[in-house]
Amino acid sequence: MKHQAFKVVGFKVRTTNENNQAMQDIGNVWQKVMAGGLLDKVPHRSEPNLIGLYYEYEKDHTKPYSFLLGVPVSSFADIPAGMVGVEIPEQNYTLFPVEGPMPDRLIATWQKIWQTASNRTFTFDFERYDHESFGENPKLDVWISTMK
């Protein structure tokens, strides 16, 4: 299915799935953001949900990539210090809904994606966390960029 283009502002880290490095790096970004309410300071926020963005893949999920935890915005004006903005173009995606205890359900979903999603483009993949259900068992969707 097509997803329209959108912009995200947040905190970025470069990581890899080798030796569980991504678990540590991405976990550190989540801790930083959640402990300080830092994303509340982002201007031009266009929706209340959080976005976990995977992009700048060197090749595929076995090689280094970038992760950004942020919020959707309508403009890149006035990006707070230490944050970056990324524009995700309109493209095709396969949607993977995730429900249940975290992080177990999310990890299981990503393992399923790695094993079954053979038509991935490795451009922009993202997790959209519903703000109303945020907590121990949030409702979220994983969007994987795919060829038509």
Order of helices and strands: EEHEEEEHEE
Rg value: 15 Å
Quick one: how many beta strands?
Answer: 8
Our measurement of the CA-to-CA distance between the termini, rounded to an integer number of angstroms, reads 8 Å
CATH-scheme architecture: Alpha-Beta Barrel
The total number of structural domains is: 1
How many helical stretches?
2
> What's the helical proportion of residues?
10-25%
Low-confidence stretches: none
Strand count, sense and closure of the main sheet? 8 strands, antiparallel
Enter the CATH topology name. Answer: Multidrug-efflux Transporter 1 Regulator Bmrr, Chain A
CATH homologous superfamily grouping: Regulatory factor, effector binding domain
Strand arrangement within the widest β-sheet reads: 1-6-8-7-3-4-2-5
Quote the average pLDDT. Answer: 92
| Top CATH class | Alpha Beta
How much of the sequence lies in strands comes to 35-45%
Structural class computed from helices and strand pairing: alpha+beta
User: What is the overall silhouette?
Assistant: globular
